[in-house]
Specification:
Blueprint (H helix, E strand, L loop, with lengths): L12 H9 L4 E3 L2 E3 L6 E5 L6 E6 L3 H16 L7 H17 L1 H12 L3 H20 L9 E2 L6 E9 L2 E5 L5 H14 L3 E5 L6 H13 L6 E3 L4 H10 L5 E5 L2 H14 L3 E5 L5 E4 L5 H13 L11 E5 H15 L20 H16 L3 E4 L3 E2 L7 E2 L2 E4 L6 H4 L6 E7 L2 H8 L7 E5 L3 H10 L4 E4 L18 E2 L6 H5 L1 E9 L2
Parallel strand pairs: 7-8, 7-10, 8-9, 10-11, 12-13, 12-19, 13-18, 17-18, 19-20
Antiparallel strand pairs: 1-2, 3-4, 5-6, 6-22, 11-21, 14-17, 15-16
């Protein structure tokens, strides 16, 4: 199975043309330019291990060039663009994404490995839904008047853009995460430097072409492919970037905060890792809860920061849930994303596959019981596939329970009473998301209030909407993406005093 010749699937002509003819260069000031170092890197198809493209690698010098372009645009044409005109450009970009959705979905599946139906029917519609929602805020960003104790003073506030924003995005939802940052940043009047993950740069590069077609002024959006070192690090420490928005691991988030503190104290917002507790009470609709728990873990091959990887089941329902989960998971089809029937695609890289399999082996050695799965899948053409794996465990201190694995691995345990549940559910450095399944709505709300997580789902899991704020507690980060709160991440407040006498 080669990168471009997939069985029983014909790629769009636009996809083939992009892979074969597009320069894969850096996008700076509305132009495709070569990396100043001349360096490049490979992006691979995780379903085959084959190279999809050679992509220019942005160095510190390239970051400098992009920042200069972004600053000039902010101080120039973009800074003078009316809010309604910014919104119109964003709406036009959303329309263009819709027009090119089939190609973008195929590129996402090739570069990331997720099933094409997920990319096309899930990711792409939500990309434009999010972009249009944020664009709608452009002419609604308001200040307020403030009553003060001094006489003859009229005091008001303004919300103003920060300036040049650097956005560093992950590889699990490449285009979606790019738009989560691009949408509110441009809506608020900032300019943007976007660094896609080095594992999945293709849809960001395709997006850059659409930005230019839409008519955004030069320098408003710049795309710099490259790894954390040197590209991301150069952005984090750059003295003329006013804010960094990052989605990724907690470890890297710490490094970004340190770099920001040691450069210009730039603003930072972080959406980081998770080890989310998903709870099934005995009074739940157990069949629905089992299906929900299954997809809470194994969607996107477990490579989701909100994945409900710690499953707590009330003891009276424990055997039923474990047996039902085993049955459901063993029906899941592991295959490449373009297969006619596929539920779980590959993990992103060979390195990540090795990491996930290592955690599975650690779980076995620590005494956790493998309910199903537990191995690499080796008969699928050289790709990076891991069986959906469910462990039963008792020791909350083992690595499969404490660490974010970012792969198709779930750990299930029983609990006996409320106090035990809340203590164990909150016994983690993370706090991104949580779920609970019960017919007792009072119990559901008590759990939602007690669990330390930025998002809690009751009798469901994983829903995210442009209008609903999203972000973490504890070491899962800070700041809220989506909703009106996203505008707060990309604006700063100015207070103006006017002597009226």
């Amino acid at each position: 199975m080669s990168a471009l010749k997939l069985p029983d699937f014909q790629l769009q002509a636009g996809t083939m043309a992009f892979l074969e003819k597009h320069p894969k260069s850096l996008f700076i000031n509305n132009e495709w330019v070569a990396a100043q170092s001349g360096k490049s890197f490979e992006t691979r198809n995780p379903a085959t291990g084959d190279v999809l493209a050679e992509v220019a690698l942005a160095s510190e010098a390239d970051v400098d060039a992009a920042v200069s372009a972004a600053r000039a645009a902010f101080n120039g044409a973009w800074g003078q663009t009316l809010a309604g005109d910014r919104a119109a450009l964003l709406f036009k970009l959303a329309d263009l994404i819709d027009e090119h959705a089939d190609v973008l979905a195929e590129l996402e599946t090739l570069d990331n490995g997720k099933p094409i139906r997920v990319a096309r029917r899930g990711d792409l519609p939500y990309v434009t839904k999010h972009l249009r929602y944020q664009a709608g805020w452009a002419d609604k960003i308001e200040g307020s008047t403030v009553p003060v104790t001094f006489p003859n003073q009229f005091v008001y506030t303004r919300r103003e853009p920060m300036g040049v924003v650097g956005a560093i995005i992950p590889w699990n939802f490449p285009l979606l995460m790019a738009i989560w940052k691009l949408g509110p940043a441009l809506t608020a009047g900032n300019t943007l430097i976007l660094k896609p993950a080095e594992q999945t740069p293709l849809t960001a590069l395709y997006l850059a072409d659409l930005v230019k077609i839409a008519g955004f002024p030069a320098g408003v959006v710049n795309v710099l492919p490259g790894p954390g070192q040197p590209t991301g690090a150069a952005m984090a420490k750059h003295p003329d970037i006013n804010k960094i928005a990052f989605t990724g691991s907690t470890e890297v988030g710490r490094k970004i905060m340190e770099a920001a503190a040691n450069s210009n104290l730039k603003r930072v917002s972080l959406e980081l890792g998770g080890k989310s507790p998903n709870v099934i009470f005995a009074d739940a609709d157990v069949s629905s809860a089992i299906r929900g728990a299954q997809w809470a873990v194994f969607s996107t091959a477990g490579q989701e920061c909100v994945a409900g990887t710690r499953l707590f089941v009330e003891r009276a329902a424990y055997d039923q849930v474990v047996e039902g989960l085993k049955t459901q998971v063993e029906k899941m089809v592991v295959n490449h994303g373009f297969a006619e029937k596929v539920h779980v695609g590959p993990v992103i890289t060979e390195q990540q596959m090795t990491r996930v399999v290592g955690y599975i082996e650690d779980g076995k050695k620590a005494g956790a019981e493998v309910i199903t799965g537990g191995n690499r899948v080796e008969n699928l053409g050289g790709g990076y596939f891991v069986q959906p794996t469910v462990f039963a465990y008792q020791d909350d201190g083992i690595s499969i329970v404490t660490d974010e694995i970012f792969g198709p691995v779930a750990a299930v345990t029983a609990f006996d009473d409320w106090d035990e549940l809340i203590t164990r559910a909150n016994d983690t450095m993370y706090g991104l998301a949580a779920g609970v399944w019960t017919r007792d709505i009072g119990k559901a709300h008590r759990y939602a209030h007690a669990v330390q997580a930025g998002t809690v789902w009751i009798n469901g899991y994983g829903m995210i909407d442009p209008a609903a704020p999203f972000g973490g507690y504890k070491q899962s980060g800070f700041g809220r993406e989506m909703g009106k709160e996203a505008i707060d991440l990309y604006t700063q407040v100015k207070t103006v005093w006017v002597n009226t006498q």
